[in-house]
Specification:
Shape: globular
Number of strands: 2
Number of domains: 1
Structural class: mainly alpha
Strand order of the largest sheet: 1-2
Strand content: 5-15%
Distance between the termini: 30 Å
Largest sheet: 2 strands, antiparallel
Order of helices and strands: HHHHEE
Length: 79
């Protein structure tokens, strides 16, 4: 029997403002098409910051990367 694989990081919950932003920009399908680790990393990156300004900056980068495709956290991604 193969071992049960567990995520290295806890699963993040999606805040309402992130969900609304994905829907407003029409990017829900592109977000959902990303691998689970990327979706979780984006949410962790947005959720962990202390200031609203930084939170919005991270959200904007995620949305821009989803829109353009081929980018993940500022790095080239061929998904």
């Amino acid at each position: 029997m193969s071992p049960v694989l567990r995520p290295l990081r806890p699963r993040e919950t999606m805040p309402g403002f992130v969900s609304a932003a994905l829907d407003e920009r029409g990017l829900r399908e592109k977000y959902d098409a990303r691998p689970p680790y990327q979706r979780n990393d984006y949410l962790l990156w947005i959720n962990k910051v202390k200031t609203e300004q930084t939170r919005q900056k991270h959200l904007a980068q995620m949305l821009d990367e989803l829109e353009s495709g081929g980018v993940y956290m500022g790095m080239q991604w061929n998904g």
